[in-house]
Structures
1.
Amino acid sequence: MTATQHMLDRCHDPTYVCSMSEPHPLRSWREAHGVTADDVAAAVGVTSTAVYAWELGERKPRVEHAAAVESYTRGAVRVADMGVELTPEIVAAVERASRAGCPFCDGSGDTEHGPCGCCR
C-alpha cells in the first residue's frame, strides 16, 4: 500500500480526524511547485514515508531534517512550520544548514564573498 493510499484510507476511517481542508505547509509547497514527496525525501535524506508522516502530523522531523526542508524550500517552509520547537541551538543549526547549500558561502560570516548575502 502506498503512503498516499494509506492517507486516504485513514481519512475515510470514522475514528480518525483528518484535516484535508488545511494541508501541511510542506504539502502545499510541494503541490505548488510540482515537487513529489520522493523529491523532498531524496533532498533531505529520509524516505517518502517520513515526508508523508510529517505532512499528516503523525511525526515531527528531526532538527536536521527540518532544517534541510527549510533550506530545500529556500525558507518557504520554516522549521517552525514542521512542528519543531525553536531553541537557540536549532536556530544555529538552521543557519548552518542554509549556508551549507550556498555555493559562495563558507559559513565564515564574510559578507564580501558573493551575491547571496546568506552571511549578512
2.
Amino acid sequence: MSARCVLHRRSAVGPARRRGSGARAALLLALLLLPAVLAACRSGSESATPAQSPAAKPTQPAASASPTPSPPASPAAAGEPAASPAPTPTPEPAATPAPAGPVPVRVETVATGLEAPWELAIAPDGRLFLTERPGRVRVIADGQLLPEPAVVIQEVAEVGEGGLLGLALHPDFASNGYIYVYYTYRDGSGALWNRVVRYTERDNRLSDPAVILDGIPGASLHDGGRIAFGPDGKLYVTAGDARNPALAQDLGSLAGKVLRLNPDGSVPADNPFPGSPVWSYGHRNPQGLAWAPDGRLYATEHGPTGDLGMAAHDEVNLIEPGRNYGWPEMVGATVVGAPGDYVPPVLESGQQTWAPSGAAFVSSGRFPQWQGDLLFTGLRSRTLWRLDLSEDGRQAVALEPLFAGEFGRLRAVVEAPDGTLYLLTSNRDGRGSPGPDDDRVLRIVPDVP
C-alpha cells in the first residue's frame, strides 16, 4: 500500500477521536466515506506503477520455480487464479557496454632476458609456456619467469632459422598435460630434419617425449615450424621447403606444406589426400597459423629473398584443404612458371618485405578498433600488422602498421582469454639489434582507467 493511501486512511479515521455532537457527526460522516476511500486506495496501488519505457529492461524476479525466465506480465491462463499483484521491481542500472570506439593501448613488459623466443601458449590456469630456439621450454607463472626451464631438449640443432620452434597445448591440456613442440635436429649422417614431439607436463617440468611426426625435411633456412590445434581438434603444422623449392609441389614430401594430424600423430580420415598428412601444398616458408571466428584458416608466408631472382612478395593465405598455393611456380599473385590451378594470396607485400611470422585474430571486445581483424608479426618489418578482411574473408580491405620499429623484430602474437595480447620479440635470433632487456615477452592492454 502506498504512503499516499496510508495518509488518506489516517485523515479518515482521525475525527473519530473528537468529543461532542460535532465529533459524532463527523464520525458518522467518516464511517460513511471509509469504504469509498479504501476502494480508491486499492485501485490506486494496483495502477500506480507507470508503464515501462521500451528501452528499460525489467529486473528478473530473484526466485523462480523454473530456470526458464518468466515471460512479460500477461492475463492469467484460463482456469488459473489471478496472482496477487507484486511490487514493481526497481530496474537495475544497465551494464556498462563494451567500448564502441577505439581505446588507447599500452604495452607492458612481462619478461626479459630470453634467447630468441619463438612461440608462446597460454595454459588454462594462466601460465605461459614458451620456446627458446636453442632448445629450452620456459614457463612464466604468476607473472614471473621461472629460473629453471621446463625442459632442455639436447638434440635440438639451432642452425640458421632452425632450432626449437613451435609449441602447442593439447585442447585437453588441463586433464592430460600434453604439450607439443616442433624442432630441428640432425640424424646420424648430419642431415637436418624437423619433427613434432609430444611431452607431458607435471609441476612445470616436461617429460615422457613421444615422437608424433618425423621426416619433415630440414635446412638452415625455411623450416616453417608453427604448430597449432584448430577448432576441429586437429593439430596443424607448417613446414618450409627446406631450401628445395621443388619439394613444395611434391605431394610425396612433407616440405613446403601445411600438415594436419590427429593428436596422436595419425592421419585424419577426412584429409584431402588419403593416408597423407598434407592439408595444402605449394608453400615456401609458412610461419603463422590463425583461425577466424567462423573457422577459416589463414597462414602467413615468407616470399623469396633472391630465389628465382625475386625478392619480397610475402603472403597472407586463406588455407583450404587440397589446394595448391603455387610456390615456386607462382610468387605472390604472379605466375612465373608452369600454369596451374594455384590459389592467389589474400594479400601480398609486393616489393616490401614483412617477413611475417605469428598470427592471431582479435576475437574479444577489449580493442574495438581491431575487433575481428587478423594481426600478424613482422620480423624484418619490425611491425605488428593489422589486416582488415572482407566479409567473405578472401580480400584485404585495409592493412595498418602498429608499433612500427618500437620493439624490434616481432616473432609471435597471441590473444589471451581475457582479450589482451602477447608479443614475442626476436632480436637475439642473429638478425636483430638486441637491447639490454632482449628478448622480451610483451603484453598489450587497454590504457583506460
